[in-house]
Design a protein that fits this description.
Length: 306
């Protein structure tokens, strides 16, 4: 791990020179964060964690939450039901495109784009004494290895300005992908995106996927091996939206980004990697984060095709 720390320091010193990009101003609360923040963390499948930079800074998960709720739906409802409503193909569109449905089936292309994630949220149900938002928060707390919480200000900010996502949800209802609980499903989607975490939390979540669905610190199985494989397969083909081909070609590991500036990658059988820096590019990816993960995988030879 000492070698990894030295690599972190070298990569971070270069990443901090990148000043391009903008804050995600379409969610007003995200426009108020400090653009200078940067952090990177990695957790091995044995549970060892190393971090560098602003590793205690909190950010909201945003779209980095999508693979984990997709896996939750697979565990709860089964692959057949989930994929009767949602496809597995890259969309070729931006993450929030309204034109996100297959022409013949009218399913969202995949669970990693907004339409697919809203459909996934509609599948998560109340159970026993736990309402579904509590169940989702418990899921992410187990993945992180500590109790997380919702960022109420970000949630309300997203809810207030979510005209495009609301349009997507009504289109999904029109084609009977989701039911009548449109607002409830949207609220759950906004809340999962508004969960607070830091890079060490996100690295632990990524490491759970690297570890075949077992959280490395607690040793608790959260996803079956089969569902974990499905999750990281779709992350590889769809997780980086309309730049997924470039990511696969230049980096070569499954990954997922969020407009808060969070991004994580999975090196199966080895480790999970997470970065946070709020300045994003036109695809919604953290510029510093993309650079850091690309350089780290290159220097450690972690491309899954090598």
């Amino acid at each position: 791990m000492s070698e990894l720390k030295n690599i972190f320091e070298r990569i971070c010193s270069q990443a901090l020179k990148i000043n391009d990009g903008t804050l995600a101003r379409y969610i007003p609360e995200l426009a108020n964060v400090n653009p200078e923040q940067f952090a990177i963390a990695a957790m091995t499948v044995e549970g060892e964690c190393i971090s560098y930079g602003d590793d205690k800074s909190l950010f909201t998960l945003q779209s980095t939450s999508k693979p984990f709720t997709y896996g939750f739906a697979l565990e709860e409802r089964g692959e057949e039901l989930v994929h009767s409503k949602i496809g597995v193909e890259p969309s070729g569109e931006a993450f929030d495109s309204i034109i996100e449905l297959e022409k013949k089936t009218h399913r969202p292309f995949n669970p990693m784009i907004n339409s697919g994630a809203i459909a996934i949220a509609s599948m998560i149900q109340d159970k026993a004494n736990n309402v579904r938002e509590e169940r989702v928060l418990n899921l992410f707390s187990e993945l992180a290895g500590r109790q997380l919480d919702f960022n109420r200000d970000v949630f309300l900010s997203e809810k207030k300005t979510a005209h495009r996502n609301r349009a997507i949800a009504h289109l999904l209802r029109h084609f009977e992908v989701i039911g009548d609980d449109i607002e409830e499903s949207l609220d759950l989607y906004f809340k999962q995106c508004s969960i607070n975490s830091n890079v060490k939390d996100l690295a632990a979540m990524a490491a759970t996927l690297a570890n075949n669905g077992v959280q490395p610190s607690s040793k608790k199985r959260i996803y079956t091996e089969e569902n974990t494989t499905r999750m990281i397969s779709l992350m590889f083909s769809c997780g980086m939206y309309d730049s997924v081909g470039t990511w696969a070609y230049t980096v070569g590991i499954p990954a997922k980004s969020g407009v808060s500036g969070a991004i994580f990658g999975v090196v199966p059988g080895k480790m999970g990697i997470a970065c946070f820096s709020p300045l994003i590019d036109s695809h919604g990816h953290s510029l510093k984060g993309v650079y850091a993960i690309r350089e780290l995988t290159k220097q450690l030879g972690m491309n899954i095709f090598k």
